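Figure 6 in text form: structure in, sequence out.
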């Protein structure tokens, strides 16, 4: 009698094309790559203190509507000429879940639990390229450790989220990525795990991965020296106060990371999960003078608030409103960016 011991819980298997095929189909030009390379250099210069502007990572909590996302990008492009700030758009196509729920456009682009990841990758790469061509640098949270091969060439700034900052797989991934990466503190509020991640990802790693041709491969990395801390608060409360940031600076100094930048996420634990309080967080950090604060993040969409996704009635969704965390609207976003520019110009 035979006994099956493999794939007993696999219901279906769909083969994806290799990354090289998607990159060749949705092809970036030399000008596109020059834009991304220049954006990465600018962000690196800001984080390392050679550029005195402040990094502003703003955009939807998660991307679900390509049309509304392009409209957002065109609006935010108008703010890129403000002095003393550098605007990058949150283009988050993966969404980590505490337990379960919609995982983002990359995983479920039709939002109906059909989980057409192949189409999700096409839409993700198409959107990143379109936003790049509008003239807005893209920021992504890197959640899956295989899929970045399909789109990471178009990402100017990346982030490892609070639920994965302690993951060895993500530390290895970051060590081989080509753009600046921020590690968020954990959901509990622990910053030490983010600092551990920075130290780990700055070193060389060797691990199994996926080649551009789609073959399993052993990847050996050089380490990513442009990594930094993102403070997003936690279950114990916010961590953007002068006292909290001084503690983080002390911890970085003790680890030999004195020049490591800090970016403040104005949402999540820092706003008490109330999108309307992001303005208070931003106002507070703009009036502080810690040497390492180099940027901030805002969750923002065309229209304020959030709405519930009904996967059986996707057509009922209102355009330009988040289906995950609540976001401030475009008008408030513009006002806050102007405020940041004005305060930083003093």
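Output sequence:
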């Amino acid at each position: 009698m035979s006994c099956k011991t493999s794939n007993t819980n696999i219901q279906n298997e769909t083969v994806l094309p290799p990354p090289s095929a998607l990159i060749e189909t949705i092809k970036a030009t030399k000008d596109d790559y020059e834009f991304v390379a220049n954006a990465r250099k600018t962000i690196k210069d800001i984080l390392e203190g050679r550029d005195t502007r402040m990094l502003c990572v703003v955009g939807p909590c998660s991307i679900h509507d390509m049309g509304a996302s392009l409209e957002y990008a065109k609006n935010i492009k108008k703010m890129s000429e403000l002095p003393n700030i550098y605007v990058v758009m949150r283009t988050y196509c993966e969404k980590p879940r505490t337990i379960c729920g919609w995982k983002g456009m990359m995983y479920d682009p039709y939002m109906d639990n059909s989980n057409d990841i192949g189409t999700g990758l096409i839409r993700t790469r198409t959107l990143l390229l379109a936003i790049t061509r509008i003239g807005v640098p893209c920021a992504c949270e890197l959640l899956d450790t295989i899929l970045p091969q399909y789109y990471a060439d178009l990402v100017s700034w990346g982030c490892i989220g609070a639920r994965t900052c302690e993951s060895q797989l993500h530390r290895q991934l970051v060590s081989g990525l080509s753009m600046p990466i921020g590690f968020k503190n954990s959901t509990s509020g622990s910053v030490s795990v983010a600092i551990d991640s920075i130290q780990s990802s700055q070193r060389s790693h060797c691990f199994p991965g996926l080649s551009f041709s789609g073959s399993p491969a052993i990847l050996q990395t050089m380490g990513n020296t442009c990594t930094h801390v993102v403070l997003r608060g936690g279950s114990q409360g916010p961590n953007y106060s002068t006292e909290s940031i001084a503690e983080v600076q002390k911890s970085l100094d003790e680890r030999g990371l004195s020049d490591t930048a800090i970016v403040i996420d104005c949402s999540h634990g820092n706003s008490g999960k109330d999108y309307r309080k992001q303005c208070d967080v931003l106002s507070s950090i703009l009036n502080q003078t810690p040497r390492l604060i180099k940027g901030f993040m805002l969750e923002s969409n065309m229209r304020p608030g959030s709405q519930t996704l009904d996967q059986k009635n996707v057509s009922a969704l209102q355009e330009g409103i988040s289906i995950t965390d609540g976001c401030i609207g475009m008008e408030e976003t513009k006002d806050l960016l102007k405020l940041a520019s004005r305060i930083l110009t003093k």
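Caption detail: The first helix runs from residue 19 to 25.
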